[in-house]
Amino acid sequence: MAKVLIVEDEDGIQNLLKRVVSMLGHDVFIAATGAEALRSAEQQNPDLIISDLSLPGKPNGIELVRALRALNPARPMVVTTGYTVGERMEAIHAEGVEHILGKPFDILAARTLIASLIGNARAG
Fold first, then answer.
1. Distance CA 124, CA 120 (A)
2. Tens of pLDDT along 76-124?
3. What is the 3-state secondary structure (H, E, C) of the chain?
4. What's the whole-model pTM score?
5. Do residues 3 and 46 make contact, with C-beta atoms less than 8 angstroms apart?
6. How far apart are CA 36 and CA 93, in angstroms?
């Protein structure tokens, strides 16, 4: 069983991602802001982080990605965003993030991506 930190300020998307991760048999931690996410990442040391790129306050999405990568560069990270082209994508890739879920995302695609990164604890 893995620990997954979901960083999302929209309740509906939070709940959807939480259900997907829970269905795979993993523990879920939620943060609604970048500051909460940093605290949770330091305290919980999650195996995977799924983070929205558009977050209120400081750190913003890109700053959060940078800070989380500094804490653990090898930890897999998925970024969710409604903006899948342009400078934002270049900035995400420059920070070493390879996995992006464009909003609105397909639930099956999200489940498949998450399972490919941390497995399915309920399989077998």
1. 9
2. 999 998 776 666 777 777 888 889 898 888 899 999 999 999 998 776 5
3. CCEEEEECCCHHHHHHHHHHHHHCCCEEEEECCHHHHHHHHHHHCCCEEEEECCCCCCCCHHHHHHHHHHHCCCCCEEEEECCCCCHHHHHHHHCCCCEEEECCCCHHHHHHHHHHHHCCCCCC
4. 0.92
5. yes
6. 23
Cα–Cα distance for residue pair 94/69, rounded to 1 Å:
11
At 48-69, the pLDDT tens digits run 999 998 888 899 888 999 999 9
Reply yes or no: is the peptide bond before residue 73 cis, omega within 30 of 0: no
Domain ranges across the chain: 3-117
Question: Which single residue is written with the structure tokens 């934002």?
Answer: 88
Q: Please state the CATH superfamily assignment of the domain spanning residues 3-117 in this structure.
A: Response regulator (3.40.50.2300)
Q: Which residue has the tokens 């070493």?
A: 96
Instruction: Give first-to-last CA distance, the chain, whole Å.
Output: 13
**Whether the Cβ atoms of residue 81 and residue 88 lie closer than 8 Å to each other:** yes
